[in-house]
Structures are given as structure tokens and as C-alpha cells.
């Protein structure tokens, strides 16, 4: 593409789209970069606006990392976290830090893992809100442990319901 093609394309973009491109300008070709700078100049978007946008994007990314999608469960369907691996407790601050995996659930059964996160919360008698510090690669060991516990619990529940009538109604 030539610089005129990029200039024409950038004219149709919003200011935010252009600022997002400017944040990753090192990945653009020389022609694309020149056209971007020309369009930013034409719209009188300066470094002060770019700095404010960079800060806004950084804050948004931090908030997204702190809340990996809303964890919810409505009528036993939704997203919930399971597991507590690599647990560390700091007795001076009262904070506990661990990794946990978020699953899509159906009938309270963890089906699909959506992510593993480093989490932190203040330890207390009542559950304190969890702060998700960062997303980690999916911890398959934790996923398998959660699935094994879920399947084992389900099988134990089925076995109890089959055995219970026999115990209660002995002839």
C-alpha cells in the first residue's frame, strides 16, 4: 500500500482508533506511520492527548486484569472460580495469595476452563473480595484436579442416592 492509501483509510477512523494505532506505531510500516502522523497532525491531536489516552488505556488494562469477566452464577449456570493452588499466606499483612481457575459451569459442574489467575485477598472470618492480579497460562494440573473432584463428588452423590433407599427401607 502507498502512503495515499493509508491516509485515505486513516481519515475514516475515529480519534481513539488513531490513538490506538499510535500506541503501536513501531509495528507499522514507514508509509503507514507517515500517514498516521499526517492524520494526527491534521486533526490537531498532540502528545498531550496521546499521553492521556495512553494512561486511560493502561488503567483500562489494569481494571480488566483485576476483574477477569464478571463471575456469576444464575440458577447454577455461569462462571465461577475453583481451586486454590500455590497458596502463600503473609501473616504480617493478613493477605493470602494463590492461583485459581475460572470455569464455565452448568448445574454447578465445572465444564470449560476460561483462565487461570493469580489472586489475592485479605484473610478473614467472612470472605473478602478477591483481587485478580494477573492472568496466567491455563494451569492444566489445577483443571484436572477440579474435574476429578467434581466427577468424584457426582459419583459419590449418585452412589449415596442408590444406597440410601436400601438402608432406609430394609425388609
Could you describe the 3D structure shown?
The chain is 47% helix and 29% strand. It has a 5-stranded antiparallel β-sheet.
Briefly characterize the structure.
The chain is of the alpha+beta class and 171 residues long. It has helices at residues 3-11, 15-23, 30-42, 47-66, 140-168; strands at residues 72-74, 77-90, 95-106, 109-122, 131-136.
| Count of beta strands | 5
**Largest sheet at a glance?**
5 strands, antiparallel
Spatially, the strands of the biggest sheet line up as: 1-2-3-4-5
Uncertain ranges: none
Which key phrases capture this entry?
171 residues, alpha+beta, 2 domains, 29% strand, 5 helices, five-stranded antiparallel sheet
Q: Could you outline the blueprint of secondary structure elements for this entry?
A:
Blueprint: H1 3-11, H2 15-23, H3 30-42, H4 47-66, E1 72-74, E2 77-90, E3 95-106, E4 109-122, E5 131-136, H5 140-168
Antiparallel strand pairs: 1-2, 2-3, 3-4, 4-5
Helix pairs in contact: 1-3, 2-3
Amino acid at each position: 500500500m502507498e502512503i495515499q492509501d493509508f491516509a485515505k483509510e486513516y481519515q475514516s477512523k475515529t480519534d481513539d482508533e488513531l490513538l490506538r494505532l499510535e500506541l503501536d506505531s513501531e509495528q507499522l510500516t514507514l508509509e503507514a506511520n507517515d500517514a498516521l502522523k499526517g492524520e494526527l497532525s491534521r486533526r490537531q491531536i498532540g502528545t498531550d492527548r496521546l499521553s492521556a489516552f495512553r494512561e486511560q488505556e493502561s488503567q483500562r488494562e489494569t481494571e480488566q486484569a483485576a476483574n477477569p469477566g464478571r463471575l456469576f452464577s444464575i440458577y447454577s449456570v455461569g462462571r465461577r472460580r475453583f481451586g486454590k493452588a500455590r497458596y502463600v499466606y503473609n501473616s504480617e499483612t493478613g493477605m493470602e495469595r494463590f492461583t485459581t481457575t475460572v470455569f464455565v459451569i452448568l448445574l454447578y459442574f465445572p465444564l470449560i476452563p476460561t483462565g487461570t489467575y493469580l489472586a489475592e485477598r485479605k484473610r478473614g472470618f467472612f470472605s473478602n473480595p478477591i483481587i485478580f492480579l494477573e492472568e496466567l497460562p491455563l494451569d492444566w494440573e489445577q483443571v484436572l484436579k477440579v474435574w476429578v473432584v467434581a466427577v468424584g463428588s457426582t459419583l459419590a452423590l449418585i452412589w449415596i442416592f442408590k444406597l440410601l433407599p436400601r438402608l432406609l427401607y430394609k425388609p
